[in-house]
Amino acid sequence: NIRTMDPFYGAISEEQTPAKKQIQRFLFDNRKFIRSTKFKLSIAAVVAITIMYLLVRTPSVKVLDRGDIANQSDDVVVDHAGDHDDDITDKLDRDADSDDFDRSDDKKPTNKPIQSNTRATQIKNAFIHAWTGYKTYAFGHDEIRPNTNATNDSWGGFGITLIDALDTLYIMQLHDLFEEAVEHVKNINWKKDHNASVFEFTIRYIGGLLSAYDLSKLDILLEKAEELAYLFLPAFDTPTGIPLNNVNLESGEASHPRWSSGSSILSELGSLQLEFNYLGYHTNKQVYADKAMKVFEVLNEVTTFDGIFPVYIDPNTGKGSKDLYSFGGLGDSFYEYLLKVWIQTGKADDYVKDMYFNSISGLIKNLVRVTSDGYTYIGEWDKEFLPEMDHLACYVPGMLALGAYHDSNKERSAEHIKLAVQLLDTCIYLYQDQATGIGPERVRFDQSEIYNGDDDSYRVLSTRYLLRPEAIESIYILHKLTGKQKYRDAGWQIFQNIEKYCKTKSSYSGLEDVTNTKGKQNNSMQSFFLAETLKYLYLLFTDNDPISLDDVVFNTEAHPLSVLK
Predict the structure, then answer these.
(1) Is 90 exceeded by the pLDDT of residue 40?
(2) Are 420 and 404 in contact (CB under 8 A)?
(3) Dihedral angle over CA of 260, 266, 268, 269, nearest 10
């Protein structure tokens, strides 16, 4: 807005400061030179040199190997998430990088939110927001209450959020925060008068520590994992070797919760093997792997429902105790571990492979249904078919796709990947069909054989959202194996809705009612939000994904563990 008496600049204002007047007078006196070609060329040269200098000064993006994920720009502009075709190759990513994670110290990034419009960076910033709130108000405690900033120590008070998020910190290259968290881990004493869930503590605490060890090779993490696993060995002291659900960490007394009526739970007893196998291998103490794998050996003799296992197992006899069969709650991760243990152990245990593929045959035969308007879903069996599906069951598409990737039977592989795509379409639809764009906890489908034009082919039984990761997990796996843009589009839409409805001033909260845009938050941020939900989202939008599906298996808490070679 410089003004002078020259018409080119305008009239000099008497209200200008003396300094501005001097500048204006200089411009006026030299206006002929300023308008000359020589001056314009000089300015152009200065601008060109400045741009070249900035380009040289800007660090180049390095192609990183496993463990260092660059915050690369996604090939899709954020503001145009839906403007892309699905004409991306269906080639399976069998050439994934299998080198070790790069752990060099000169790549430590800032721990502050980064200003960027790339999707991976925005998700990383969401993690930093949640972690900062946890660190500020609840560091060392199990969880932060995201609406009140109070603390929750229902997981023993050892810092379950911190340990569950260790590998996410490392993968996102937040090394300063990772090292700070490790200092807390060094001082943990597990022996406390607390009745610990063997399953939950194994997948979250032990799995988190082992994965962080796998990435960083810090021995203290392996040591702390073994300290806790050793305290769980009394759970396996039953006539069959089927573990009880809980162990008191101080007394060593093993027990069942009252609600289980003396039975062990399929998803719990069958989701310890990845962690205990890894621990036995890296500590050279075979007892851990032996205890866990004995469970699979016993279950291999159980009477099944066309390959599907009962969710309640009597630890004294090894037999199913009730007629309930489910790939959702109470059953879910057992089937996942059958597949992943087979992969983890070099595909050496044929009986584990057979247990997995036989169970999928039973699933297709008995529990898969299609609604009258074309949505494929998984029900349950409780003496008869129950057309209800948990959010938890949305892990199945990813599991089916992973199994198809590793299966040498091409016909079966094609059938499983087709079913995976159909089931994931339903899971995504259940998100998109809610007012908040976030999926509900449980739904019941209409079994009508003829479509009557009613949009409500299902009804919501539980409107809650607990920041669950299962749909995003399957979206990540299907995108990794097919490269289809529609999965990134769906994942981004979910993330945006989480940002809109779940974000608090300090962190993120689950929702009471996903069908209501004005529904309440539930003041809970479970540790798996940082361990799974944000990790899978981040990996979904990272062009240089460090995870090789040949060399790494995720435990059911999204903790990547190298296969045993």
Answers:
(1) no
(2) yes
(3) 110
Whether the CB-CB separation of 360 and 424 falls below 8 Å is answered with no
Residue 445 in contact with residue 369, Cβ under 8 Å?
Answer: yes
Q: How many helices (H) and strands (E) does the chain have?
A: 21, 17
> Is 332 a known active-site residue?
yes
What angle, 0 to 180 degrees and rounded to 10, lies between the N-to-C axes of helices 119-138 and 485-501?
30
State pLDDT tens for residues 102-152: 323 333 434 555 554 599 999 999 999 999 999 999 999 999 999 999 999
Terminal Cα-to-Cα distance of the chain (whole angstroms): 70
Q: Which of 164, 226, 332, 489 is catalytic?
A: 332
Known catalytic residue at 441: yes
Evaluate whether 491 touches 541 at the Cβ level (below 8 Å): yes
| Known catalytic residue at 200 | yes
Handedness of CA 71, 72, 76, 79 (dihedral sign): positive
Q: Which two tokens stand for residue 320?
A: 């199913």
Closest CA to 417 of 396, 390, 389, 431: 396
Q: Which of 68, 74, 164, 200 is catalytic?
A: 200
Instruction: Kindly state the greatest CA–CA separation across the chain.
Output: 102
C-alpha span between 332 and 391 (Å, rounded):
11
DSSP H or E stretch at residue 442: strand 442-445
**CA dist., res. 546 & res. 65, Å (int):** 6
- Tokens standing for 319? 């037999």
Give the pLDDT confidence score for residue 164 in this predicted structure.
Answer: 98
Give the C-alpha distances (Å, rounded to integers) separating 315 from 161, 232, 254, 269.
Answer: 31, 16, 12, 10
Q: What are phi and psi of 58, to 5 degrees?
A: -75, 125
CB 302 within 8 A of CB 318: yes
Rg of the chain on CA atoms, in Å: 28
Helices (H), ranges, 370-452: 396-406, 410-432
- Identify the active-site residue in 380, 441, 489, 532: 441
Which one from 74, 167, 470, 473 is the annotated catalytic residue? 470
At 110 the pLDDT is 43
Q: Which two structure tokens, joined as six digits, stand for 110?
A: 């800032």
